[in-house]
Amino acid sequence: MASRYLAPFIVSWNITKRCNLKCAHCYLDATELAGRAEATTKEARRYIDEIAGLNPHAMLILTGGEPLMRPDIFDISRYAATRGLTVAIGTNGVMLDNGTVRAMKENLVSGVGVSLDSASPAHHDRFRGMAGAWEATVRGMEALRSSGLDFQVQFTVTRENRHEVPAIIKLAEDAGARAVNIFFLVCTGRGSQMTDLTAAEYEETLNCLMAADVERKGSMMVRARCAPHILRIAEEKGAGSPLKFMTSGCIAGRGYLRISPEGFVTPCPYIPVTENSPRLGETTLREICQTDPLLRSLAGPSLNGRCGDCEYAELCGGCRARALATTKDLMGEDNWCEYTPKKTEAKRIMEEKELVWEDAALENLKKVPSFVRPMVKKGIEKYARGNGIERITTEVMEDIRAKMGK
User: Fold this and answer.
1) Which strands make up the sheet holding 86-91, listed edge to edge?
2) Which domain holds residue 234?
């Protein structure tokens, strides 16, 4: 009998290592040159078939490098969408214009993630290694807004820009973004040369993010990425922030996978490829999900250090990639967390009971932008389980909206 495994609901595919920028924090160390082992169009279709075979409703994020530098990017997006996958493109935004955005819509791209690392053009351009990058990206967001194609802003927090979290949230909302993702840097690739936040700065920034989110009352989805500790803060404060429902603990290898430009599979983009990493073409994605020791270890992790002692281990679990990068132990403690475990009763994730969605509630869910719909659905179900609700109705959804201030 085959081993049990969790089919991925999100696959992030670094479809190319080519890039037109040279960002200081790039985990892929991307360049303008094409990788020799990049998947061909034919291979890309085969990978898509394997993803759809595991989960025909998965979200596929085509990223890079800069995915728009692949001449066949829209052939790939269209093929993936026809297989039932929700397709999003992650871009630095420099190549976005009306024609490119039109091609995205014609080739069934559901949403776009646009990276913007400062409200200051000078800082963003310096960070991204190209003069004029900020202006080009902001123009690209206007093209997306004008076309009606949903997009979200991706902001990577560093020591230099962490004070800009409220400004970026406002900029994203004013630009018409459906969501803003606040990424907390994992120092890999070129990013390994950057100075980490201290644990105190990290905690302060998470509290700032929580406050900014509560203040906005859910007018735009705000999410912390690579920062599962936000759940501990929300639990401690009893905050009414949507972050409590729209942010999860570390999902690396637990429904989330990354495919490298060369076809290697890792639990997340920040966990590097090694000589032991499985590779598509040499084995199947199903076989990888069923048997890869790294993925199996993350399915039910036995954590070490403070993470292992922490009562919030099930809710949070720390960032596994950051633990690996800083302690060389995938199950080690995440040293960006300054919390001292109290060794009280563990805070448990609600039992994953099957929930019933009424037809009217499902119709309401369909109104949510498709590329964020899986996360919204997961957040609603998380809220329902946390409140002992077994049947999701339009009234439950309205209750959540009211709590979010919408």
Assistant:
1) 221-225, 179-184, 151-157, 111-115, 86-91, 59-63, 10-14, 256-259, 265-266
2) 10-296
